[in-house]
Amino acid sequence: LAKLMANENITIQHQKIQTAKFDPKNRILYLPIWKDMSGCMYDLLGGHEVGHALYTPADGWHDVVTDKNRGKNYKAFLNVIEDARIEKKVIRKYPGLKSSFRKAYAELSDRDFFGIQYRDINHMSFIDRLNIYTKSQYSLKIAFTGEEEKLIEKVKNVESWDEVVKVTNEIYAYSKDEQFDMND
After folding, report:
1. Which residues, at least 6 apart from 92, have a Cβ–Cβ distance to it below 8 Å?
2. Which of 99, 119, 104, 125 is nearest to 180 (CA)?
3. Cα(104)–Cα(51) distance, rounded to whole angstroms?
4. Which of 1, 12, 139, 164 has a Cα at 20 to 30 A from 121?
5. Residue 153 CB neighbours (<10 A)
6. Which of 100, 53, 94, 67 is nearest to 172 (CA)?
7. How far is the CA of 34 from the CAs of 18, 24, 37, 132, 173, in angstroms?
8. Most distant CA pair in the chain, distance
9. What is the pTM of this model?
10. β-sheet bridge partners, residue 12
């Protein structure tokens, strides 16, 4: 199914790994072998990575994440924004994934996959709050400042890779003080 959704003959490998991932250069989709994986979870992991296969440019991704002029947290910021974009686009292309994504992210939350069960999400860094918010399909009640809400609107409206890089740069600059705290 992932090969059909990706519109190409990508290689799919099941491995004992922490989470799914996609190698955009070699066109390999890696799916984890987890105990008690529901159909919705499999749809989420496969659908998300197919989103990368369809929409994340291999050269663009490599160029940005290997740029030595970027800060050490830049890749994590870029990944959050790109994940929001590719999930929006893959759900738009395959609307049946929307409910699977929502259910599977609820399962991941129940499993404390993101490691936030005993943390107050409203005291987390903006990029972490943004990540959880986008994964919830913008449904969780999370506190954001007015400036952060404007940045979230930009994330919601990102369509192209160039826009991902532009919005990531804005959020990265906005979060400069928080990044300093993250490095302590």
Report:
1. none
2. 125
3. 16
4. 164
5. 9
6. 67
7. 9, 23, 6, 22, 37
8. 45
9. 0.88
10. 29
